[in-house]
Specification:
This protein is an alpha/beta fold. Among the domains are: about 280-310 and about 480-680, no CATH class; about 320-460, 3-Layer(aba) Sandwich (abc type-2 transporter like fold), CATH 3.40.1710. The chain contains 22 helices and 13 strands. It has helices spanning about 55-60, 95-105, 110-125, 140-150, 170-185, 220-225, 230-245, 270-290, 290-310, 350-360, 370-380, 395-405, 410-415, 425-450, 485-515, 515-520, 525-555, 565-590, 590-610, 625-630, 635-645, 655-680; strands spanning about 15-25, 30-40, 45, 70-75, 80-85, 160, 190-195, 205-210, 215-220, 320-325, 365-370, 385-390, 420. The strands form three sheets. The chain has a six-stranded mixed β-sheet with strand order 5-6-7-3-8-9, with helices on both faces. It is elongated, with a radius of gyration of 39 Å. It starts with 12 loop residues before the first strand and ends with a helix. Mean pLDDT is about 85; it is low at about 1-10.
Length: about 675
């Protein structure tokens, strides 16, 4: 027995409440100097209108809520000995009836024989539907019967039922009351609330409650005899009249409230059964929601890697318009392949350029036009992405550059440049076309200079030598920068971090809103055990998810040349910090809407402020960069991954250590915040 007051609890009482006060916010008192004594092995019927404080009182009894002031003493040592049925059905709606029983059987560690016998007994008494029925498909009365059965499954010493007969068939309700009487005879104490006042006459003792005050408690027949009336309803009316004429006196000193289950806080003997039951529930959730689970996990991850490597690697087919004002026009009668440098005065470099273009860029056909008006018409209709206008003296201007040097004719050079008209509404197209035209023109000029005995490097633009392999690890072969790898790594970071967050908040918040976890917490399950059940599942999810992404990136596409194991390890550490971020969101919020809002904001912020779109070092306000680096671990993790993949950086690299360090920092931060929030809210 747990003693919480200054005096020991009455040995004949199952529950004793003294001087209880409770209110929410700045509102009125829900319970006011409330006193109650519930005898052992009896059925106690608590009567009162809606809003009088019955549910608040019951939740305080079972530890699902707290009083502002007062004292509660109970005849049990642990929450595991309490059976609580809240007013809401509080079941996992996607479970079948059989799975619901199996979950709570694991939760209370029932043996198979005990479990089977109790399920059969309750099924007969409550006339339960077929075990394969899913809870969300049941009618209101059927769900309530299943909820009652769950409450009684583990044979609790103290049974608390909040309006269990609401919606039940009268015949079944009568059978249920007879069953409760048998339980009381067997040594169980039952507290039951009901708004059917006359139904409460079947209870051993009744308590009549109004406006947060217990008006009277005694055997029903004694109360009827005392007030010389015919029914409990008339008794209640008399008590209401007495209350209206009584002046309430608030005591000068209120007793600070202490939980009657405080010894449960250090009892971890049920950790594995509880956690295993939560894992069982999560597995069933995945089975019921395999489509959304697949879309948010393997399908999204793999498709992101495939899209990064396939869709971002190549440009769509583009047509280039050409208006050539040179002598040879469309170059139909000119063959660049038979050019002889001894006949340099007859060369047409515009034809050489187009010949080289067709060889280097076969996927970008050249469309010849006689006039610029025709070309511009097709350009405005998006048929063309670029229009090249080559002047008649294009060749002369180029030759003047190389043959005359500083003595070249300025007017000739300025008037002999190729005009390039680009569709500026598409930045990526403009960037590619500028680079392609420059590259092909450079190759054209090098070919000409080489054939004519000149030093071909004269055509290099600009005159510099770029060595990109100096930052690589020893023995690592340089590969040209590929933006697809950058995008793939950013996707890996985002999905690894946000994937568990979305799955966790969708699953846990939905079940949290139904009140299903209230019943679990009342049954002695701790928040840490609930989180542990999700943690194990999501860690397995991360291992598979990050494994599939790295497999496709390393093996299928063979893009990076870094260390596979280090990439895989960093992704899983990042995913672990994402899991705890999800736990923090669930602990912080009180509705699915709030959870969804935070997830949406986090998703947008992550892809905006983590260097995915543009380097955060470009921020002109100095405070933005450190905020972006520390508010999400993805920023430094992305840099660490790129260092692993492009520089072959190892675990001792500063960038890699920063990636692991920021994940560890976030783990510590969110664990601390979750602990504080759970202590403040007395739950999650």
């Amino acid at each position: 027995m747990v003693e919480t007051g200054s005096a020991a609890m009455d040995s004949s009482a199952a529950v004793t409440i003294r001087n209880a006060y409770k209110k929410y916010g700045q509102g009125p008192w829900i319970l006011k100097n409330y006193n109650m004594t519930i005898p052992k092995n009896q059925i106690y019927g608590l009567l009162g209108s809606s809003g009088c404080g019955k549910t608040t009182l019951l939740k305080s009894m079972v530890g699902a809520g707290t009083l502002d002031y007062g004292n509660i003493e109970v005849c049990v040592r642990s929450k595991k000995e309490v059976g609580f049925m809240p007013q809401e059905t509080s079941l996992f709606e996607e479970f079948t009836i059989a799975e619901t029983f199996e979950f709570y059987g694991q939760l209370y560690k029932l043996s198979k024989s005990e479990f089977d016998a109790k399920v059969k007994e309750l099924s007969d008494v409550l006339d339960l539907p077929k075990k394969h029925r899913v809870c969300k498909t049941l009618s209101g009365g059927q769900v309530r019967r299943v909820s009652i059965a769950v409450t009684l499954l583990h044979t609790p010493v103290l049974i608390i039922l909040d309006e269990p007969t609401s919606g039940l068939d009268p015949v079944l309700a009568n059978i249920f009351w007879q069953y409760l009487n048998r339980l009381a005879v067997q040594g169980q104490t039952i507290i039951i609330t009901t708004h059917y006042i006359e139904e409460a006459r079947q209870a051993t003792v009744v308590g009549l409650m109004r406006q947060g005050v217990l008006l009277a408690e005694d055997a029903p027949e004694k109360l009827i005899a005392h007030y010389k009336v015919d029914s409990l309803e008339d008794v209640f009316l008399c008590l209401c009249n007495e209350q209206a004429s009584t002046v309430e006196v608030e005591p000068e000193r209120k007793i600070p409230f202490k939980s009657p289950y405080r010894d449960d806080t250090t009892d971890y003997s049920m950790f594995w059964p509880h956690t295993r039951a939560i894992m069982f529930k999560n597995l069933k959730w995945v089975q019921r929601n395999w489509i959304i689970f697949s879309l948010l996990s393997i399908f999204l991850s793999v498709s992101c890697i495939i899209e990064s490597n396939e869709c971002l690697k190549y440009y769509p087919a583009m047509r280039v318009g050409v208006v050539n004002h040179g002598v040879n026009g469309a170059c139909v009668n000119y063959d660049p392949s038979v050019f002889n440098c001894s006949e340099a005065h007859q060369v047409d470099l515009s034809c050489h350029f187009m010949h080289r273009w067709k060889k280097e860029k076969p996927d970008m056909p050249l469309i010849m036009y006689d006039t610029m008006q025709e070309a511009l018409k097709n350009g405005k209709s998006r048929y063309l992405v670029t229009i090249l206008e080559i002047p008649y003296n294009f060749t002369a201007g180029i030759l003047e550059r190389y043959e005359e040097g500083q003595n070249a004719n300025k007017d000739l050079i300025e008037g002999a440049s190729m005009d390039i008209r680009l569709d500026s509404t598409d930045f990526m197209t403009v960037f590619k076309m500028e680079q392609d035209i420059r590259d092909v023109l450079e190759l054209t000029l090098k070919d000409h200079l080489g054939l004519c005995g000149y030093f071909a490097s004269v055509a290099d633009s600009p005159p510099m030598i770029i060595k990109k392999d100096e930052f690589l690890g020893e023995g690592v072969e340089y590969k040209p920068y590929d933006y697809t790898v950058h995008v793939a790594m950013a996707c890996m970071c985002g999905i690894t971090y946000l994937g568990p967050v979305i799955l966790l908040t969708v699953s846990l918040c939905l079940e949290k809103m139904t009140g299903a976890y209230t019943r679990c917490l009342v049954g002695g399950v701790k928040v840490v055990e609930i989180f542990a059940g999700y943690l194990f599942m999501l860690m397995i999810f991360n291992l598979v998810n990050s494994g599939s992404m790295t497999f496709f990136q390393f093996v299928v596409y063979q893009q990076p040349h870094g260390q596979f194991w280090l990439t895989y390890l960093l992704l899983n550490v990042l995913g672990l910090s994402g899991i705890f971020f999800g736990f923090f969101i669930v602990t912080l919020t009180s509705s699915l809407t709030e959870c969804a809002g935070i997830c949406i904001v986090a998703s947008l912020a992550m892809y905006t402020f983590t260097g995915f779109v543009w380097p955060i070092e470009a921020a002109r306000i100095w405070i933005i960069e450190p905020i972006c680096k520390f508010i999400f671990p993805n920023t430094l993790c992305l840099k660490a991954l790129l260092a692993i993949l492009w520089k072959d950086a190892g675990l001792s690299s500063k960038q890699v250590l920063l990636g692991f360090g920021i994940c560890g920092l976030h783990l510590v931060l969110y664990t601390s915040l979750i602990y504080v929030m759970v202590r403040i809210k007395k739950g999650f």
